[in-house]
Structure formats: C-alpha cells, structure tokens
Amino acid sequence: MSDLTVRPAHPREYRAIGELTAAAYLADGLLAPGDAYLTELADVAHRAEHAELLVAVDESGLLGSVTIVHPGTHYSEIARGGELEFRMLATTPAARGRGVGEALTRAVLDRARSSGAEAVVMSSLDAMRAAHRLYVRLGFTRVPERDREPLPGLWLRAFRAFP
User: Fold this and answer.
1) What would be the CATH architecture of the domain defined by 5-161?
2) C-alpha angle 17/23/29, rounded to 5°?
3) Which among 41, 52, 60, 146 could bridge 21 via Cys, Cβ 3.0 to 4.6 Å?
C-alpha cells in the first residue's frame, strides 16, 4: 500500500481514533455494545497521556491506529524491562486486507529498534486468528507462560518478537 503513511497521532484525531477502535472491536464481535472496555478504547486522550499513539492514514483519512506502551506504565499489561508492548491495534473495516495492520505492526517494531528495546510483546484474544497469522509472519512467537485470563473465560495469548 504505497500511499499509506504511519505517523504519531494528532490530538485533533483522538475522537476519531476512539470511534475507529471501538467500532473495530464491535465489528469483529470481540465486544458487545455496552461493554465497559469500549469506554477505555474510546478514551484516546487518556491513552495519549500514558502511551505513544500511531495512526495509519492515506488520502482518504484515518485507516487504523495502535498504542505503544512501556513497562510499568498505566496501559502496560505484560511488558517487562527492555520491552515495548503494543495494544489496541485497530483498522477500519474498509481498510482490512490492505496492509494497514502490518504497517502499524512494522512501525511498532521500528520504534522498538530505534529506542533500543530488546523485544516487543503483545496480547491477543484467541478469536483474532488473522492477526495471529500476521504476527507470526512478522517474527512473533507465542509466549504461553505470559498468557493471562483477566476475566473468567477470557484468555489473552502472549506473543513476542525481537526487533
């Protein structure tokens, strides 16, 4: 996708990023309307205070976003010293299959390399099979000892890559 740009998010985009992220989770059936996690996904201004936000854009506008967190910070779930973690990667339904998720993931790996991080980690729901295939293709491997169950029956599977 040659016209795609990945860059830091601008504050004027926060509302649209929140809407995009919540809509993507709903469209994929990962959350139900009214789920409390939708509020967290939509609160992009708070995320921006505690994490780095990247967006993928083209001439049509916003296509996707990802949140990069450091260990021990508010949004960190599994990152340890020397690691970056990414969360809340989402793309618009219209942008699916166009390489947006890959571009955002590669940007996270690039950010890790430039910051001297030893690894990138992330957690993913079992249902996110297409995302898992992408992560494996980009060099991520499963880290089962870091899997977790934040709610009964809701398993998050851990992955790690070395940039």
Assistant:
1) 3-Layer(aba) Sandwich (3.40)
2) 140
3) 41
Q: Please report, as a single letter, which amino acid is at residue 38.
A: L
To the nearest 10 degrees (0 to 180), the angle between helices 129-137 and 100-115 is: 50
Q: Which residues pair with 85 in a beta bridge?
A: 69, 121
Q: H or E stretch including 79? A: none
Give which of 37, 34, 36, 41 is closest to 18, Cα–Cα: 41
Q: Exposure pattern of 3-15 as b/e (b: 16+ CB <10 Å)?
A: ebebeebeeebbe
Which pTM value belongs to this model?
0.93
Cα maximum dimension of the chain: 42
Provide the phi-psi class of 48: left if phi over 0, else alpha when psi is between -120 and 50, else beta. Answer: alpha
Domain spans in the chain, listed from the N-terminal domain onward: 5-161
35-82 pLDDT tens trace: 888 888 999 999 999 999 999 999 999 999 999 999 999 999 999 999
The tokens describing 156, both together, are: 């998050």
